[in-house]
Protein: DUF2264 domain-containing protein
Organism: Roseibium salinum
Amino acid sequence: MTIGTHPLSGNPLQTRADVQRAAGDLFKPLLPYFSPSGARVRLSAMAAHFDQAAAELEGFARPLWGIAPLVAGGGRFEHWDLYRRGLVCGTDPEHPDYWGDITDIDQRQVELAAIGFTLRIAREHIWDPLDDVQKKQVAAYLLAGRERDYVNSNWKFFRILVDIGLIHCGIEPGAEKREIYLDDIDGFVMENGWYRDGPIRSADHYIPFAFHYYGLIHAALSGDAARAARYRERAAEFAGAIRHWYAADGSALPFGRSLTYRFAHAGFWGALAFAGVEALPWGQIKGYYLRNLRWWARQPMFERDGVLSVGYCYPNLLVSEGYNSAGSPYWAMKAFLPLALPQDHPFWSAEEEAPDDGETPVPLREAGMVMQKLPAHTVALSSGQHYARWRGTAEKYGKFAYSTRYGFSIEANDRHFPSAACDNALVFSRDGLHFRMREDNEAVLIAGDRLYAKWRVFEDVSVETWLVPAGDWHIRLHEVTTPYRLDVAEGGFAIAKPEFRAWTEEVSGACAQVATAADISVIIGNDSRTPCVLSPLSNTNVMAARTLVPQLRDTLEAGTTRLACAVLAQPAQAGEVPPPQPEFPEIDDLRELFASTGRSVPVFEK
């Protein structure tokens, strides 16, 4: 159900003209929120960890990721006077809407990258009409920002993008610091085209639009032939892996932080075209791109006035991080990069093609995942990853399975174990009230299409977990060693909860199953745990505001206990029953397999 204005409503998103229209329609709801000077976009009183001036700069700058390609490719944008006025006022220390002085590791550095990019591909609209005094002032602000230190992560690309814009405007900021950061970025490279985001090895949905996206822009615009070749080669290799994160309906895997940027990840496919990288046939690249935009156009992700909300499929602050302001979601405008290309570019002229994903399951060692491309959704079996302690980190990186249809849930109350969603997670409580789940790993291995992880939920409680794909199902096996009694719960996939109790529950033996008119979710234990169906707290799941989760619960005694379950979720078909339960492998056999063929997952080296 859509409430209020939906800027993408009625747009078929099949042609270049449709995408041009989408870029303009997404921008229009922001116009009433520009300050009179044009320098700030004031959307909400909600706060990020940085100051409000930087948040309002974010609202000003992020739409440029879409606007600049739109006009570079010949599209119309009627508000350049607003942006020129805002650029001048925002960089003027004497103006009330001044964006503020830039310090080391400052959010302003992030947003200046969009301005640098705009100077490079739309200079005649935002730079050339300024007078000499204004140009000097704007350049001084950009130069001051790029001289500061940046976060040791994908942020290092932001200095490079500022420099690309300044150089195009006849201002050489000096190559030394730029080259240092370009070398540092090369140090983040893993195998098979993957990057790690800084010193902590996370490989999430951020990588396509926070590394490859910028690298491909650099390849297309910098004139640095040697690095351009490396960026193109990495992106082509990476495309062969990241395509497995997409389902046939265009949805992409929600996994990791910064989900509020939504269809920014479609920018990867557009960036391939922008840099001329035919990593897959152009029709397939176009298909991944347009199907994803169409999927997002069906989601109720807007506020009543048509402004993009903070959240994922719907407005939801629980999914956000401390660095998300009300303007943050407009990084989604990165998806419009291919609008800079002409209509006759093969990306636009090719016929959209269905994916050719080959066999499933597919192991992705760098991400510590095994991808199951199922008929109605894609599932990632995940060994878990390490990341900084943003809100919901354990849920965003540490669950056993993630789905393009069912997403995952973030716990809203870790002081009430009885209501824990624990979808696709094994959750423990020492007092029956507070609870913990996997946050990190001590060891991770992959053997073919099977995963192993050793982790601790408490310092003195160790868990070993094996994940095994099994047709439409997947199997989880755990060995838990604890010196005291523990309550334990494990959940299957969370499915959308309909109105008026329009669902059925089957709880018998070792099986918990819940079915609606749209979906069915099942968990079957091969141990002594008790099955149940839980309705978690509202707004915890990233896909659906209310959900139902089948679970297995029990109390473990001190010592070592083995747990096993099979898990399935799929759309409900009239009269259809779930496929037969798979056979459970033996833990001892899996130990032998991993001892002989297991390879460490590099994403967990700290």
